[in-house]
Amino acid sequence: MRLKSIQLLASLTLLTLAAPVWARTHSATAISDGSTTVAGTQLKAGDYELKVDDNASQLQVIQNGKVVAQAPVHWVQLPQKPAGTSVLLDDGKIVEVDFGGNTQAVQIVSSQ
User: Fold this and answer.
1) Each residue's pLDDT tens digit, 9-29
2) Does an H or E element contain 6, and which?
3) Is the pTM for the entire model greater than 0.90?
């Protein structure tokens, strides 16, 4: 009986360690004209990649392979899957990223 318990514990430990491997990274492309902000950070004109892992609480804003900003996010459930990925703005601020083919989106947590 003790051997079975040890095997079960070892199996659960391996599954727990392997879980991050199964995590999916969601990404979107955003183009700034120089007036776009995310979480209070002004984005210079150019192309950006927005990345967030499944169930993560931080969105990374990447330009030329470097993280230029991070924003706290929370996940929301969409009523239906969007056809394509979209970045939603409100008065020049990135407020939400919807990922095509996924019913979950991330909303930027406002500091206000």
Assistant:
1) 555 555 555 545 556 889 999
2) helix 2-22
3) no
